[in-house]
Amino acid sequence: MVQVINAGMGLKSAQRGVMLKEWFWLFKKIKTDEQFFEHQQALQNLLADGQDLHERDPKGRSALEYIFAKAFPSYAIVLWLLKQPEFKAEKEASLYPYDVDLAQGCFQLTKANNMMDKLDELMPTKLCDLTDLAEKQRLAQPYLLLLEKFEAAGLTNQFQSSCADYKAAFMTKQQSLQQLQRLEDELETQFGELCVGFNMLAGEDYNEFQSRIAGSPWLPELDSAIESQNLQALKVISADSSLKLAFQINFAELKGLNPALPSNGLLQVFIAEPEDGEEPVGRCEAIFWTEADMPSANWQQHLDKALATDCIAPSGFDVSFRKAGVYPICWQPYKQLPESEAQIRLAIENIDSNIDAEIYDNLQYDHGLMPRVAELTQLVFKQDGSFAEEPYLPKNHIAILSYLYCDSGSCIYSIPLDALNGDNTDWRQLTYTYCHD
Question: Model's pTM, two decimal places?
Answer without folding.
Answer: 0.82
